[in-house]
Amino acid sequence: SAVISQKPSRDICQRGTSLTIQCQVDSQVTMMFWYRQQPGQSLTLIATANQGSEATYESGFVIDKFPISRPNLTFSTLTVSNMSPEDSSIYLCSLRSGWVNNEQFFGPGTRLTVL
Amino acid sequence: AQSVTQPDIHITVSEGASLELRCNYSYGATPYLFWYVQSPGQGLQLLLKYFSGDTLVQGIKGFEAEFKRSQSSFNLRKPSVHWSDAAEYFCAVDMNSGYSTLTFGKGTMLLVSP
């Protein structure tokens, strides 16, 4: 299985600021995903980030609020822009090596608190 | 749209007792099915998965799950719970239809009492 690391592991931010979360994978993968897990809730997919194409956002998420970069096959970033307390969540990077009979792996998450 | 229901928000089990966590899905065809565990402060770890074939699947840490098509269920079981099993458990489905991703249930928090 792939090893996924995220930085920072946690942060406390002020309202109105932005935070960029980094996701590093130890192998080349095509499909990467960003999820949000709000307190006491399940995981919600924010967007799919495939290398070489624009990120695809799910309903309720927009690029201006959550810009994503995918410069190569081992790295991605998610920025949470103009933060408000409602953005306090765990943000998880995820990947899968293919669509058919393939597992989806998750990073350790970034715990974000917005004051 | 597909959905996943985990009807139990919290479950408390005595150490050594058996465990069953429920999961039901709503989808026209048989999706791929997964159980993940999330320990406090940790990411998600895959416990087991069902793609096809034998409907009773074995996973890591002594867990198993049974797919029942007639009930649209994929319940997770363990015959004897250990204190280290205390965590949140998520059931997830994948539609297995081209460009699809995981849909998660709301999770069940397992508490283990001495």
TL;DR of this structure?
Chain A has 115 residues and is an all-beta fold. Helices cover 0% and strands 51% of the residues of chain A. The radius of gyration of chain A is 13 Å and the shape is globular.
Based on the model shown, name its key terms.
heterodimer, A: 115 residues, mainly beta, seven-stranded mixed sheet, four-stranded antiparallel sheet, 11 strands, 0% helix, B: 114 residues, six-stranded mixed sheet, 12 strands, globular
Count of separate DSSP helical elements of chain B: 0
Number of strands of chain A: 11
Describe the oligomeric state of these chains in a short phrase.
Answer: heterodimer
User: Sheet with the most strands of chain A?
Assistant: 7 strands, mixed
Percent of residues in beta strands of chain B: over 45%
Number of strand elements of chain B: 12
Mean pLDDT of chain A: 91
Principal-axis shape of chain B equals globular
Overall helicity of chain B: under 10%
Strand/helix succession of chain B:
EEEEEEEEEEEE
Radius of gyration of chain A: 13 Å
Distance between the termini of chain A: 36 Å
Give structural notes.
The complex is a heterodimer of chains A (115) and B (114). With 115 residues, chain A is mainly beta. Chain A has no helices and eleven strands. In chain A, the strands form two sheets. In chain A, strands 2, 4, 5, 6, 9, 10 and 11 form a seven-stranded mixed sheet that branches. Chain A has a four-stranded antiparallel sheet with strand order 1-3-8-7, with no helix packed on it. The radius of gyration of chain A is 13 Å and the shape is globular. Chain B is mainly beta and 114 residues long. In chain B, the strands form three sheets. In chain B, strands 2, 5, 6, 10, 11 and 12 form a six-stranded mixed sheet that branches. In chain B, strands 3-9-8-7 form a four-stranded antiparallel sheet, with no helix packed on it. Chain B has a two-stranded antiparallel sheet with strand order 1-4. Helices cover 0% and strands 52% of the residues of chain B. Chain B is built from no helices and twelve strands. Classes of the chains: A mainly beta (115), B mainly beta (114). The A-B interface holds A 4, 33, 41-45, 48, 92, 99-101, 103-109, 111 and B 32, 34, 36, 41-46, 49, 51, 90, 94, 96, 98-102, 104-107.
